[in-house]
Amino acid sequence: MNDVSPATAPLLVRQISLDEAQLLCAAAVGAARERDVAVSVAVVDGGGNLVAFARMDGAEIAGPALAVDKAYTAVANSCATHELTEASAPGGGLYGLHAASGGRFVVFGGGVPLRWQGRIVGGVGVSGAADAADDIACAEAAVARWA
Fold first, then answer.
1. 3-state secondary structure of 11
2. What is the 3-class SS of 47-97, one letter each residue?
3. Torsion angle (degrees, nearest 10) of CA 123, 129, 130, 132
4. Which of 14, 62, 74, 100 has the fewest CB atoms found within 10 Å of its own CB?
C-alpha cells in the first residue's frame, strides 16, 4: 500500500514568490533599458493571477492591461503569445482566439510562459515597445532570469 504510482502521486506545483516575480520584472525592465524602450511588465502565477507588475516611466497607456493579458494568455494557452499569431489569423485553426475569454487573449508577441519541471507555473507579459520583437526579447530576458 505504500507504493505510489505516477497516476496517484501528489501533484507538486511550484509557486512564484513576490520576490521572484519582482526580480523577473527587473530583468525585463533592464532589457528594455538596453533596447531604449519603455514597457510595462507583468508576472502571473499558474492560474493567470497577477503576482508583480512594473511600468517604466513614459510607457504607453495600454501597456498595463496588455502586459497582464499577455502573461495570462501565455499561461492559458501553454505557449508564447507570438506563437499564436499565425494560427489565430483569418483562415487559421485558431481564428477568433483573440475574442475568446472575454477578449483577454492577446495573440501577438510579448507573453511567455514560465515552466518548472515541465509544467507551466506562471507567465511573463511585456508590452509597450513599437516593435513586438522588443517586447518578446524583454519577456525572454525575464524567463532567462527564471531558469
1. coil
2. CCCEEEEEECCCCCCCHHHHHHHHHHHHHHHCCCHHHHCCCCCCCCCCCCH
3. -30
4. 62
| Grid cell for residue 82 | 507570438
Write the CA distances from 24 to 63, 77, 110, 134, integer angstroms: 17, 21, 14, 16
Instruction: State how far the Cα of 41 lies from the Cα of 128, in Å rounded to an integer.
Output: 9
What lies within 8 Å, CB to CB, of 32 at 6+ separation is: 38, 39, 41, 56, 126, 128, 129, 134, 138
Are 106 and 77 within 8 A, CB to CB? no
- State the Cα angle at 54 between 99 and 73, rounded to 5°: 25
